[in-house]
Amino acid sequence: MKIKLGIQCATIRKELGWVGKSEDVVDFEGETIGDFLKVIQTNNGQSFYDRFTQGDSGVISNAVVWYNLMLFVKKDNLNFKIKDGDKIVLLRTIPGGG
Fold this sequence. Notes:
By secondary structure, the chain is of the alpha+beta class.
């Protein structure tokens, strides 16, 4: 199946080695968002999934995963099923609030 991947953070794009693009279509054969994140490789050779779930102290461990522009996926809900044509967007967490 084909999944659209958008990355709306320059730092995350750099960590993935993306130059000059913010969106791509990824051929994917798994079932869940977690499976999808496991096939996305970062510059250091680890998967996005590993760095996202294991708290690597960088921007990836604090990223936000947005599913079909409707649902923010939490680290404990990465078993959410995806289908052909879905879109996953990776965003940077904005610090602050209160």
